[in-house]
């Protein structure tokens, strides 16, 4: 079977070559309707070892090798109209068949009916710091949405309204008919304070889900080198025939010291169902959030029925290399609900204690060259008394990325 990405590479270069001619001054002109055509891509390889594969589930150890290759084609018709295509081929493990997808394909029109921006097609979305809605780039197939977005500015307020459908099989845990739409606004109050407000609706009749997530986020700089953020969200609606009444809170602070040292502290909470058996579900579920980034790199837990206290440290010792270490302490928000394991948030039966355990993440991020990137490290999860299988877990990974 021929490589789809290889064919795209050849086609793109053939189109680019046929559309250009060299003038006497040595400047390349194009006789096509496009003002510009840009080509790029990504090749990402990752190897992981987990022992056991799931400390909360009691599964055996596992080794995973994955590959993700992307070709990006961007074009600009004129000053106001452009577009972007991103084709992806991925391999989920050694010896497994490749999976070809169109990850992104959209048109972007600027200054429509004034100063509005319109985006139509398939694309990624990121709101705030990604705790609720994020591309989730760590995963092989990350979140994408089909639909449209209209964005605009009013004084210091940047707003966007979107109506989309989540793409099945790309990142998010969406059903075949998961509609996702809402409004998100960011108000720049001052150089030291931003306020975000939003209302998001996720609806899937096949899964019995019709829920609203609404709330706000504040972030800023308290004084020199002290950065903070606070987010609170509520959920209301219906999930599986039950009335949803759920909440989540996240508080984060970072302080920068001399020499490239940064100290961080984070506390976040997502409610669980503390009244099982009634007509309500109090378990919070982020629509398309990034628990990998915020709740432990090993993806042991999901941001549901969870209290996570994290102490973080980062050292930027050069322009090309950063060292990170995070220490998490996990507990169930309520002892009446299960432990939700990530990614996906599937519930498993816990022991009597609320103590899920602790996780230590240690990793290094750096640039081997201008376009070659390396990330490697690992995590140790120490199971608490609330984990029925009481299995600790070791996780090691190496990720190499090439962007061009």
Number of DSSP strand runs: 23
Task: Name the structural class.
Answer: mainly beta
DSSP strand (E) fraction? over 45%
State the assembly state of the protein chains: single chain
CATH architecture: Beta Barrel
Provide the low-confidence segments as ranges: 9-30
Query: Overall pLDDT, averaged?
Result: 88
Q: Roughly what percent helix?
A: under 10%
CA radius of gyration:
23 Å
The CATH C-level name is Mainly Beta
Number of domains: 1
Q: How do the SSEs run, as a string of H and E?
A: HEEEEEEEEEEEEEEEEHEEEEEEE
Describe the protein's architecture and organization.
This protein has two helices and 23 strands. The protein has helices at residues 4-18, 291-294; strands spanning 20-22, 28-30, 36-51, 62-76, 81-91, 99-112, 116-123, 145-154, 157-166, 179-190, 193-204, 209-223, 226-239, 242-256, 261-270, 280-281, 306-316, 321-331, 339-341, 346-348, 355-367, 372-383, 393-403. By secondary structure, it is mainly β. Helices cover 5% and strands 58% of the residues. A hairpin with a 2-residue loop joins strand 12 and strand 13 (226-239). The strands form three sheets. It has an 18-stranded antiparallel β-barrel. The protein has one domain (4-19, 34-403): Porin.
């Amino acid at each position: 079977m021929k490589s789809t990405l290889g064919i795209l590479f050849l086609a793109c270069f053939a189109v680019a070559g046929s559309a250009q001619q060299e003038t006497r001054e040595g400047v390349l002109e194009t006789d096509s309707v496009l003002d510009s055509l840009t080509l790029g891509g990504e090749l990402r390889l990752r190897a992981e070892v987990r022992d056991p594969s799931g400390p909360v589930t009691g599964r055996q150890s596992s080794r995973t090798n994955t590959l993700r290759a992307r070709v990006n084609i961007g074009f600009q018709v004129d000053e106001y109209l452009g577009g972007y295509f991103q084709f992806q081929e991925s391999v989920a493990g050694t010896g497994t068949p490749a999976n070809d997808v169109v990850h992104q394909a959209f048109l972007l029109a600027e200054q429509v009916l004034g100063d509005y921006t319109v985006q139509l097609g398939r694309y990624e979305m990121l709101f705030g710091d990604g705790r609720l809605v994020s591309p989730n780039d760590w995963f092989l197939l990350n979140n994408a949405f089909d639909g449209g977005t209209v964005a605009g500015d009013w004084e210091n307020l940047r707003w966007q309204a979107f109506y989309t459908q989540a793409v099945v099989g790309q990142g998010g845990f969406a059903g075949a008919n998961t509609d996702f739409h809402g409004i998100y606004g960011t108000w720049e109050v001052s150089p030291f304070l931003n306020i975000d407000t939003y209302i998001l609706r996720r609806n899937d009749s096949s899964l019995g889900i019709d829920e609203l997530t609404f709330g706000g986020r504040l972030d800023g700089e308290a004084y020199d080198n002290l950065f903070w953020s606070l987010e609170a969200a509520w959920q209301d609606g219906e999930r599986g025939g039950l009335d949803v009444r759920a909440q989540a809170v996240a508080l984060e602070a970072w302080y920068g010291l001399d020499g490239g040292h940064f100290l961080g502290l984070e506390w976040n909470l997502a409610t669980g169902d503390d009244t099982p058996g009634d007509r309500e579900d109090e378990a919070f579920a982020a629509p398309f959030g990034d628990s990998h980034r915020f709740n432990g790199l090993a993806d042991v837990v999901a941001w549901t029925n969870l209290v996570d206290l994290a102490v973080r440290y980062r050292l930027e010792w050069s322009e090309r290399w950063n060292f990170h270490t995070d220490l998490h302490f996990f507990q169930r928000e309520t002892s009446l609900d299960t432990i939700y394991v990530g990614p996906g948030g599937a519930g498993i039966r816990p022991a009597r204690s609320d103590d899920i355990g602790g996780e230590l993440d240690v990793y290094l991020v750096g640039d081997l060259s201008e376009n070659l990137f390396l990330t490697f490290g690992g995590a140790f999860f120490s199971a608490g008394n609330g984990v029925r299988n009481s299995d600790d877990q070791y996780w090691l990974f190496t990720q190499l990325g090439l962007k061009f």
